[in-house]
Amino acid sequence: MLLAISFIGSTLRTTYIRDRNISLLTQVNILSNQITPNFYGIQLENTRTYLQDLIKGYSLDINARILLLDNNGTVLIDSYDAMLGQNFNALTEVKSALEGYDSNQVYSLPSGENVMYVGVPISDRNEVMGVVLASSSIDDLLQNVNLTLKRVALLSGIGLLFTGMVAFLFAQVIASPIEKMIQLVRSFSRGNFGVSIKIEANDEIGQLAESFNDMASKINQVDEQRRKFVSNVSHELRTPLTSMKIISETLLHQPSWDESVYREFMQDIDGEVSRLNRIVDSLLYLVDLERDELVLETQITYLNYVVQNVVRNLKPLADQKHIHIDVEERDRLQFHMDQGKIQQCLINLVSNAIKYTPENGKIRISIYRETTDACITITDTGIGIPEKDLSHIFDRFYRVDRARARTTGGSGLGLSIAKQIVTLHGGDIQVSSAINTGSTFTVRLPIRYSGVGA
Known about the structure:
By secondary structure, the chain is an alpha+beta fold. Helices cover about 50% and strands about 20% of the residues. It folds into two domains: about 1-190, Beta-Lactamase; about 225-445, 2-Layer Sandwich (Heat Shock Protein 90), CATH 3.30.565.10.
């Protein structure tokens, strides 16, 4: 009987400690993922304050002391503000974390308190930048185990055999989902964010499994946003780089040019480099993985000038296919807009028109005012878009013809980016098309003289 009680006690302790370990490890991993994008800027006051508030908030939520260490094991932030500057590189959990592994251990302190330590690396591109070290008392857990043992002892009179069977079944029921969760947490820590746990239970383990699934789903969404963010950046930069390459090749392949022509081409290249710098600078602010919205920097700008600049930049691409671009300026329109973003929007639309218009085709761009809107229509004599696809062409990564998209180099992001830019300006894009006749894209932008938010 004593052996059975001892076995139950050992099983309960192991199970509860595993449960607490998974819970603490999961929470610290979430915290580590939130700290990673901001760790490089920890020397900045705003970033350090944000990380302090984040760590102290987590400390209260999970009832644990949390230390943020650099890659030398020195404390940068302490949720209790008592160990700043101390070094823990000799601690086993810190050593393992600095090697890139999660680790945990239970210690019995001289005071008699039992404490669980968990160390999780903060890494970026397989480089360990620091460590999140958390410590949590498990005395309440052990007290619950002892209370359970007392209750089991009251029922031990039923018989040693029955007690052994109950203990065995209890261990199987509890340990099996815990082992399953441990395997999935390990898979999760390796970057497989698409995992989920299927445990049908109404107890704490079931709740923990549900919490893990929610966390995995959210982090998976963040990872998908990050991937889409990288794709958007690549597409934003591709077209201006192509224009600069064509201009530079034109200069290199011609034995001599007039100085005025050189200056004009170099001014075009300089303008494209400046625009690329503005795009990169804007994208650097999009570090929040839950948002992929474009940032507007508005100023009073002539829309006619923006259209002329787009045509001038894309003319080499059109000339390669002997496509004539005609610009009709019915009105001269000046209002608040983000010039770089609107130019990127029009580049996406016009380059698409060039891409899907056969050789010797025509593209007509009209600029006019309609009540309180500035309108730009881009009409081509291209291959057209099937009616069934018109409602989807602004969806990200949507392609009308994937085979043709491969030959033209399309990524399925250009129209989506254009739509997002116009929407952020409070405008709209409409499209009409006929197969083998051509397409017309109409961009409407509200004319405002005191900012986009006016």
